[in-house]
Write a structure and sequence with these properties.
The protein is mainly α. The protein is built from 19 helices and no strands. The chain has one domain: Amino acid/polyamine transporter I (Up-down Bundle). The longest helix has 38 residues. 57% of the residues are buried.
Length: 480
């Protein structure tokens, strides 16, 4: 019996199967971090698309819904800690699966770096607005946040999922209250700057088109990054082939509704005009709109909730990236040590350590480079978004092949149009954000993304026996 076959025949040991639907959905929502995401990403979209930020989120919600179909369907057949790594590996083969997992792992790590730095942004804003401390040194605030993430990351996964859910629910309720107040004010009266309701928040500025919407939608896709996170709990969830698909569906519906309401309220709150769009692009919505429509104290509370949400994002993506790293190391080596080792609490301890060290190095590197906190945040977030979109494209291709062309169809054949459209949405968004109109440092980010993907491709292509071990490792998991 060869090594690969032996590995496949061994019983799967390691991660504990103890999580419920609520835990799995909480993990996806925590990775998304909707409160922290919508606290800044709308401003990035406003720079590109002006008053029509809501349209960019509509585009992203449609694209994510189409891609989510793939994850929901595939998770009904495949359960594994590697998330996209397993979903694509089982459907398109071990090499493509490894590359997809590599892309998603890099995306989670990059998003974690950006979210950790963003804690410094909102932390500094909170300290200044409350009069506690006036500082422009964001790095030490981010460092404190990272220390907290590191302390909690090694806790039992059930504790992590419940912490993620609690923080996001509280923050989302407070943001929703603000959105309702804004909409009620502009519809029945006028805002602090004379803002009133106008349908222009759904109209493109002159000279804009579908390409502009797709370019701005990168921030919408980024806002959803992690919706598939529950798939990484495939070996830790009871009845995963039922609960994981439900968790993903729940996360997309709930968070999508929240984003559309909040994006519309923010656009109208600033004013759906050229001046309002400029203020939106240069502002911090929680501070500006919370203070303007309810009171300064409310803006301070929302900034605090954004910090907590960003903490949750960093914690969630660190846990997600570590589980993918653990799964790939376990399957790729056939061992249960090193990166494939688990702590006494059932966490992939060594992999978590590597991820957290990368977060720290990114934070220190951005500070030494003299990057502003805004650019230090958006650089890794942009990289992470493109990498996660690459993983999504591979997942849609895998879903099309596995569901409709591999053996008997596992879904009605007419539904093939859903993943096909999802892949088209994502590919067009990648094209608009990699090959069109990037300036300054952002124009160099595609090279970083390309090199990272090339390293993963070369590794899985030339490492002796790796593809066979990965295939055996995937076969030993919960697959059809």
């Amino acid at each position: 019996m060869d090594t690969a076959t032996a590995a496949a025949s061994e019983p799967r040991e390691g991660l504990r199967s103890e999580l419920s639907l609520v835990d799995a959905a909480a993990f996806s929502v925590g990775l998304i971090g909707p409160v922290g995401a919508i606290g800044l990403l709308g401003t990035g979209a406003a720079v590109i698309i002006g008053r029509a930020v809501t349209l960019s989120f509509v585009f992203a919600v449609l694209g994510v819904a189409l891609v989510a179909y793939c994850f929901i369907r595939l998770s009904q057949h495949i359960s594994h800690a590697g998330s996209v790594y397993a979903l694509v590996g089982v459907t398109l083969g071990p090499r493509v699966g490894f590359l997809a997992g590599w892309a998603l792992m890099g995306a989670y790590i990059a998003i974690g770096c950006g979210s950790t730095i963003e804690m410094g942004l909102f932390g500094g804003q909170f300290l200044r607005d409350t009069g506690i401390l006036d500082t422009q040194r964001w790095w030490w605030i981010a460092l404190i946040g990272l220390a907290g993430v590191s302390a909690l990351a090694y806790a039992e996964i059930r504790i992590i999922t419940r912490a993620l859910l609690t923080s996001e629910v509280i923050g989302a309720v407070l943001v929703t209250i603000l959105s309702i107040v804004i909409l009620g004010t502009v519809i029945f009266s006028h805002g602090p700057g004379g803002q009133t309701f106008t349908i222009n928040f759904l109209s493109l500025p002159p000279g804009s088109g579908v390409g502009t919407v797709a370019k701005a939608a990168v921030y919408g896709f980024l806002a959803f990054a992690g919706f598939e996170g529950a798939a990484a709990l495939g070996e830790e969830t009871t009845e995963p082939k039922t609960q994981i698909p439900r968790a993903i569906k729940t996360a997309v519906i709930v968070v999508g509704s929240f984003y559309l309401l909040t994006a519309a309220a923010q656009s109208l709150g600033y004013g759906a005009t050229g001046a309002g769009a400029k203020a939106y692009a240069n502002g911090l919505p929680f501070s500006d709109l919370g203070s303007g429509y309810i009171g300064k104290w409310y803006g301070d509370v929302l900034d605090l909730m954004a910090i907590i949400s960003l903490f949750a994002i960093s914690l969630g993506v660190a846990s997600g990236a570590a589980r993918i790293m653990y799964a790939q190391a376990r399957d790729g080596t056939g061992q249960r040590t090193g990166l494939a080792g688990l702590s006494k609490r059932g966490a992939p301890g060594a992999a978590l350590g590597v991820v957290l060290i990368i977060f720290l190095c990114a934070l220190i590197g951005q500070e030494l480079a003299g990057s502003s906190v805004i650019h230090a945040t958006f650089y890794p977030l942009q990289i992470g978004t493109v990498l996660i979109l690459v993983a999504y494209v591979l997942a849609t291709v895998g879903a099309i092949y596995f569901l409709f062309f591999k053996g008997e169809p596992k879904a009605p054949r007419w539904q093939v149009v859903i993943p096909a459209l999802g892949g088209a949405f994502v590919c067009y968004t990648i094209y608009r954000n990699v090959f069109v109109g990037q300036e300054g440092t952002y124009a160099h980010l595609p090279y970083i993304e390309g090199v990272y993907l090339l390293v993963g491709l070369l590794f899985v292509s030339v490492a002796p026996g790796l593809a066979g071990r990965v295939r055996a490792g995937l076969a030993a998991g919960s697959v059809p």
